[in-house]
Specification:
Rossmann fold; alpha/beta; globular; AAA+_ATPase; 4-stranded antiparallel beta sheet; binds adenosine-5'-triphosphate; transport
């Protein structure tokens, strides 16, 4: 069996003196899509932010490719894409400018590739319109255009289906499956009824947090 990309061992997190989860252990293997599920407020966003390295209020162990994540930090950051539940789109910038800015910490990407990605998310004709003039779903699609050019093997995606129409949902589901089929892995939170073949689940909010 291939080595896990990411492993969580006995994760525990408390916020405002409320225990969100404890003894939470799981492995994210290449070729898998995992849904993090649970009612509102059970810690799905918090867990994804912990996994992405954006929240330090936790205990336990996180391993990236078999080594402690903090010792393998550069490799972890280079190979992980995190998209949060807020699109993170600047309203005064156009979709093209936003996508350029989102890609800036990575390798430079030619505008032609960015424009193709925007067209691929249904934004052809809107590339140069300030994002404040776009709908909520269109703004989210700007952030999701990242998925069409992402070469990171691990995707951590928080509520990426919010405000997206039925055709867009299908397209995103296909991208998640494609990433897994290419040997990557996806961890996704959603309240949308996501049920892909072979999908794994991490359920928060019960007496016991568990992986299925
Ligand atoms: N910045 C914060 N400071 C303190 N507590 C917070 C903060 N953000 C969230 N929380 C608390 O952490 C808990 C988990 O929040 P989180 O956003 O991770 O839940 P969630 O499962 O993603 O919820 P939802 O399904 O509503 O998106 C909630 O009880 C919330 O009140």
């Amino acid at each position: 069996m291939s080595e896990p990309l990411l492993q969580a061992v006995d994760l525990e997190c408390e916020r405002d003196a409320r225990l969100l989860f404890q003894n939470l252990s799981f492995s994210i293997l290449p070729g898998t899509v995992t849904r993090v599920e649970g009612p509102n407020g059970t810690g799905k966003t918090t867990l994804l932010r912990i996994l992405a390295g954006l929240n330090d209020a936790w205990s336990g162990e996180l391993l990236w490719c078999g080594q402690a994540r903090h010792q393998n930090r550069e490799s972890f950051l280079r190979n992980t894409l995190y998209i949060g539940h807020r699109p993170g789109i600047k309203p005064l910038l156009t979709p093209l400018e936003n996508l350029r800015a989102l890609m800036a910490p990575r390798q430079p990407v030619p505008d032609q590739v960015l424009l193709q990605a925007l067209a691929g998310t249904g934004l052809a004709g809107y590339e140069h319109v300030p994002c404040r003039n776009l709908s909520a779903g269109q703004q989210r699609r700007v952030a999701l255009a990242r998925l069409l050019i992402a070469d990171e093997p691990l995707w951590l995606l928080d509520e990426v289906f919010t405000a997206i129409d039925a055709a867009g949902v299908q397209a995103i589901e296909a991208l998640l499956q494609q990433r897994a089929a290419e040997g990557g892995a996806v961890l996704v939170t959603t309240h949308h009824d996501l049920d892909l073949p072979g999908m794994k689940r991490i359920t928060l909010g019960g007496e016991v947090n568990h992986e299925r």
